[in-house]
Amino acid sequence: METNDAGTGTGTETAAGTDAAATGPDSGEAPELTEAPELAEIPVEAHILPVAELHLHIEGTLEPELIFALAERNGIKLPYADLDELRSRYEFTDLQSFLDLYYANMAVLRTEQDFADMTRAYLSRAALAGVRHAEIMLDPQAHLSRGVSLETCVNGVASVLAGSQEEFGISTLLIAAFLRDLSEDSALEVLEQLLALDAPIAGIGLDSAEVGNPPAKFQRLFARAKDAGLHRIAHAGEEGPPSYIIDALDLLDVERIDHGIRCMEDPDLVERLVDELMPLTVCPLSNVRLRAVDTLAEHPLPAMLAAGLNVSVNSDDPAYFGGYVDDNFAQLKSVIGLSEFDCVRMAANSIRSSFATDERKAELLAELAASGV
Ligand code: ES4
Ligand code: ZN
């Protein structure tokens, strides 16, 4: 598709470097960052579909090269000698083993410009993947605990999202995700601060270590978010049991489930999710890398589609899990033999399940229909 050609080259090269440095408050001092990694080598798929990315942690888009570039700019000494040593840590045994590295690498994010550069790098890469609308999670508590203010992380990301449609052709929304291994009081405090700041968030999410931190722990948080007119999503059924999905629906009144793959263990729940058209934001490469499933060939996605579930394909933490949305689709096609029809169906699901305006959804669905697949 044309978007591939249009996306490579100049827009990409300036993404993490020139633009960001030129617009930052101290543009004279901030050294330019290196080009976003390996963009020139990204394989151009025969059919890159226009999609909405609904499950994406912005901190999970920090590529190793950007981690090193930001560390250098901020004078931070990393506990890895070089890129290869960092990359050698990307062998995960479960969710927690990933989260340990994910939180550790956030140490390089100190200034608004760091958050802006990370966001710009994601959007430039996502545009190549066919992403036309993105709902982006940010983990404010993971930054507050390091002494980085709410304003710094939110403004850094939001300043780039504000111009994402003009700059990258991607409409965006920001979602504040809360760490479920911390207390509900901590989450409530941060939510109140976000509301007091009038932060441009469209909704809240729930992420981090799932097992042992069930939805019941966050009922007041989600009630407050609903009261404030915010959308509500939660990770459930990634590592946790099907009962966590049920509780996210019943106790948190969520509008989407992130992951949800373990619903397949409970036929009554599957029937309910189908009846309610409940969106499940599935992340196949993430599930393989975190060992929620043994291999991509054994991923439940085909069974979920066959059951009539409202599933979409998402990248979760693409810098850590081996690829962006296009990579997820490409591997689903090559490894599972997923049909073009199913890919289009999931692209349409992603658009319909987004919190975009009806106008934007109609525009993207028309674009999908016209994509010639
Ligand atoms: C996450 Cl894959 C995943 N699961 C739960 N929490 C997360 N935070 C970032 N990625
Ligand atoms: Zn996730």
Automatic annotation (TrEMBL):
* Highest taxon, organism lineage: Bacteria
Q: Does the keyword Metal-binding apply?
A: yes
Give site residues, Important for catalytic activity: H259
Q: Which residues lie in coiled coils?
A: none
Start and end residues of each stretch annotated as Disordered: 1-32
Tell me the enzyme class: hydrolase
Tell me which residues bind substrate: D317
Q: Has keyword Membrane?
A: no
**Catalysed reactions listed for this entry:** adenine + H2O + H(+) = hypoxanthine + NH4(+)
- Where is the Adenosine deaminase domain positioned along the sequence? 50-369
Keywords in alphabetical order: Cytoplasm, Hydrolase, Metal-binding, Nucleotide metabolism, Zinc
UniProt family annotation: Belongs to the metallo-dependent hydrolases superfamily. Adenosine and AMP deaminases family. Adenine deaminase type 2 subfamily.
Q: Which HAMAP family match?
A: Adenine_deaminase
> What is the name of the protein in this document?
Adenine deaminase
> What is the source species?
Arthrobacter humicola
- Lineage from the top down? Bacteria, Bacillati, Actinomycetota, Actinomycetes, Micrococcales
